[in-house]
Amino acid sequence: MKPIYEPKTRAKEYCDLAINIYQGCSHGCTYCYARKMFERYHPNEKFEDVKLRPGIIEATKKQLSSGKFEGKTIQLCFMCDPYPAGIDTTPTREIIKLIKAAGAHVQILTKGGERAYRDFDSLDSNDWFGITISSIKDSHVEEPNAAPVDERMNVLRDANKRGIKTWISFEPVINTDDILFLLKFLPDKNTFLKIGKLNHVANSTDWKAFGLEAERICKENGWNYYIKEDLR
Questions:
Q1: What is the b/e burial string over 97-109, where b = at least 16 CB atoms within 10 angstroms of the residue's CB?
Q2: Is the distance from CB of 98 to CB of 133 less than 8 angstroms?
Q3: d(CA 196, CA 173)
Q4: Do 92 and 37 meet the contact criterion of CB atoms below 8 Å apart?
Q5: What is the number of other CB atoms lying within 10 angstroms of the CB of residue 161?
Q6: Helix H segments across the chain?
């Protein structure tokens, strides 16, 4: 097993390298693409029953020992969350420490909120801490077991104050009005924004109008942003 891999297609717009630490996720997001893929290939298992991928710590250590990842950034995670609810996420810390010891950098994307605080002492100004925001008022329905959006934002601010680079993934977008509102009042101008749309779920949203307005707000406020190709 080689846990560190190069993402393809849409995921490539987030990071050149990634690792998935766990099998499954307990956040219960209604729009989850990873859940759909998991259920297709594991019909007798529950996606919510999060498990550490067998042998991943040793396999990651072996892969990093090659030296070819030095100076590169590795995302945690695409097909799971590095801080799922209800389980011991010590393996996430172990993976972070292995990546840093190999001279590589970490890019975290999570809805775990305060569960991520524990590992801030392992991150520095070469690393990224990111959160996903899909909506505000509907988040408790669409992401029932994820940390509340205000908690995610508070943790992001703390990471920013510590000198860790910060970013927000506005994808998938569930409520366009919520996202456009939030874009007007972001607290940290140096937080990098990646803005996408809702994929894999039928919807009637005018994505062109949303994308144009989102970009207008970003330009008006001087935000550092990227519009994902599906939305552009």
A1: ebbbebebbbbbb
A2: no
A3: 7
A4: no
A5: 10
A6: 33-41, 56-64, 90-101, 139-142, 149-161, 176-184, 207-221
Question: Which residues is 75 bridged to in the sheet?
Answer: 18, 107
Query: Tokens representing 47?
Result: 């996606």
| 89 half-sphere exposure, CB direction, 13 A CA radius | 23
Whole-structure pTM value: 0.94
Cβ count within 10 A of residue 68: 12
Return the bridge partners of 74, or none: 17, 106
Residue whose token pair is 């209604």: 30
Q: How confident is the model at residue 36 (pLDDT cuts 50, 70, 90)?
A: confident
CA neighbor of 129 nearest in space, from 192, 185, 174: 192
How many CB atoms within 10 Å of residue 181? Answer: 12
CA-to-CA dists, residue 153 to 20, 46, 188, angstroms? 23, 30, 10
How far apart CA 53 and CA 30 sit, in angstroms, is 23
User: For 165-206, what is each residue's pLDDT tens digit?
Assistant: 999 999 999 999 999 999 998 877 899 999 999 987 778 899
Residue of 131, 151, 121, 143 lying closest to 194 (CA atoms): 131
